[in-house]
């Protein structure tokens, strides 16, 4: 697959280290994250990664943790 130019499997999401540490700091958000489907996780990651500015990206990660802790499944 890599020789053909495919960078990663489409069914897996790449979790940034910032998101990983934020989820570890919020147990409710981490529990909700583990219950999300791969499509819902991709939606959250796509929403967070759509803002390329580092400060705004970190704010979106924090906002995502708050949303997940509140039980929301979509950004």
Low-pLDDT regions: none
Described by strand count, sense and barrel closure, the largest sheet is: none
Instruction: State the domain count.
Output: 1
Order of helices and strands: HHHH
* 3D shape: globular
- How many distinct helices? 4
The helix content, as a percent range, equals 55-70%
Q: How big is the Rg?
A: 13 Å
| Estimated share of beta-strand residues | under 5%
Structural class: mainly alpha
In round numbers, the mean pLDDT is: 85
Overview of this protein structure:
This protein has helices at residues 17-25, 27-35, 38-49, 54-69. The model has no long low-confidence stretch (mean pLDDT 85). The chain contains 4 helices and no strands. The chain starts with 16 loop residues before the first helix and ends in a 6-residue tail after the last helix. The chain is globular and about 40 Å long. It has one domain (17-69). With 75 residues, it is mostly helical.
Task: Walk me through the topology.
Elements: H1 17-25, H2 27-35, H3 38-49, H4 54-69
Quickly describe the structure.
The protein is mostly helical and 75 residues long. The protein has helices at residues 17-25, 27-35, 38-49, 54-69.
Key phrases:
75 residues, mainly alpha, globular
């Amino acid at each position: 697959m890599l020789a053909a130019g495919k960078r990663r499997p489409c069914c897996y999401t790449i979790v940034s280290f910032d998101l990983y540490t934020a989820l570890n700091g919020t147990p409710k958000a981490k529990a909700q994250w583990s219950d999300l489907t791969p499509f819902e996780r991709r939606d959250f990651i796509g929403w967070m990664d759509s803002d390329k500015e580092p400060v705004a990206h970190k704010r979106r990660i924090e906002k995502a943790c708050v949303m997940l802790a509140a039980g929301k499944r979509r950004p």
